[in-house]
Amino acid sequence: MAAPKTRGAVTQLEEDGGRSRSEVGGGGYEDSKDCILEPLSLPESPGGTTTLEGSPSVPCIFCEEHFPVAEQDKLLKHMIIEHKFVIADVKLVADFQRYILYWKKRFTEQPITDFCSVIRINSTAPFEEQENYFLLCDVLPEDRILREELQKQRLKEILEQQQQERNDTSFHGICMFCNEEFLGNRSVLLNHMAREHAFNIGLPDNIVNCNEFLCTLQKKLDNLQCLYCEKTFRDKNTLKDHMRKKQHRRINPKNREYDRFYVINYLELGKSWEEVQLEDDRELLDHQEDDWSDWEEHPASAVCLFCEKQAEIIEKLYVHMEDAHEFDLLKIKSELGLTFYQQVKLVNFIRRQVHQCRCYGCHVKFKSKADLRTHMEEAKHTSLLPERKTWDQLEYYFPTYENDTLLCTLSDSESDLTAEEQNENVPIIGEDTSKLHALKQSSILNQLLLQ
């Protein structure tokens, strides 16, 4: 007997979810065969569940055992051991609870062998020692269609949840790095952590179930666990220093726990964001053309050391810092004779002081960056750099902001040096004075004396 098609099965479940048992199952099989996902037609058991929505447990397909939704592996293990039943690629099932309820219904209507492949183990042993296992997989068209339907339904629910979060203005959250509170839309907190702490978990519009995501990250930090390498440390200060110095203020992309918080992982059945990204890359390679005449490079903007001013052309940013803040980075580089790496350390030092709202000229700390900026401009402390030993330290090799474009624009070429500085950098090789008489005969000074 051929298995009936399941197109629209999930929709049918939503429509029929409120009917009573007598309405759906009372008229015999012919009246109820279209309601193939109707959970109210399943046998009830003490402590079990009769409705899908809000159900805290999932029943075994073959018996009256129930398992919590969060303990999916226990149910799978139970069905393998007790019923010799295996579900292939179960991790690709979008809604495990609906999937199980569907097949529990179908197996009461037709023999299991109509749907499953039979795998015999111990085939060389005596007949009484041989065992048959049943494999359910998406090679069966009905199973494939069911998985696709569940995926579409899950995607619909995720997109609705995402839209609700986009429009929600009642969000209240606390930054996990500086404990600053944020009200309004979730994007305000996410953008703050990316801008102020170089902690970027992605564009707000690409994230779903944001509250749960933030709680998951906060719980890891509370447990003194690094979000990137996931090592555990003895105290919060050690953890903070580790994440800052190792540039681990990001999540581990290989941790599949985070996949459910990104919409891209719901777009295609059985594909993660990495697989989708690889497909996009291959498509670009397949359509490559030799003509690059229309290529347009969009340079990243560099940010001022003291305010939020940005500029794609670095010379404009230098002019802004000189005019608005009386800070001439090129002049400081020239006067102090700074190498490229010394410039890097100076920029990272200033970034850190400004981030901490501390004036590096007088060491006074302020409540906000705006107060600090006003003080430094009025007191003319922007150009009042501390002694070189204060900022020329190894710790300032590490960028304060991971995406600090200004560091990429610093110059180490000799063309920026004055003529005097270039001459100072020319190595002087001493002449061999062991043969003084011969040196006098060949010296260029003889020609100068003749002139």
TrEMBL record:
<keyword id="KW-0862">Zinc</keyword>
<dbReference type="InterPro" id="IPR013087">
    <property type="entry name" value="Znf_C2H2_type"/>
</dbReference>
<dbReference type="InterPro" id="IPR041661">
    <property type="entry name" value="ZN622/Rei1/Reh1_Znf-C2H2"/>
</dbReference>
<comment type="similarity">
    <text>Belongs to the ZNF277 family.</text>
</comment>
<protein>
    <submittedName>
        <fullName>Zinc finger protein 277</fullName>
    </submittedName>
</protein>
<keyword id="KW-0863">Zinc-finger</keyword>
<feature type="domain" description="C2H2-type">
    <location>
        <begin position="224"/>
        <end position="253"/>
    </location>
</feature>
<dbReference type="InterPro" id="IPR036236">
    <property type="entry name" value="Znf_C2H2_sf"/>
</dbReference>
<keyword id="KW-0479">Metal-binding</keyword>
<dbReference type="GO" id="GO:0008270">
    <property type="term" value="F:zinc ion binding"/>
</dbReference>
<feature type="region of interest" description="Disordered">
    <location>
        <begin position="1"/>
        <end position="33"/>
    </location>
</feature>
<dbReference type="InterPro" id="IPR040048">
    <property type="entry name" value="ZNF277"/>
</dbReference>
<dbReference type="Pfam" id="PF12756">
    <property type="entry name" value="zf-C2H2_2"/>
</dbReference>
<feature type="domain" description="C2H2-type">
    <location>
        <begin position="355"/>
        <end position="386"/>
    </location>
</feature>
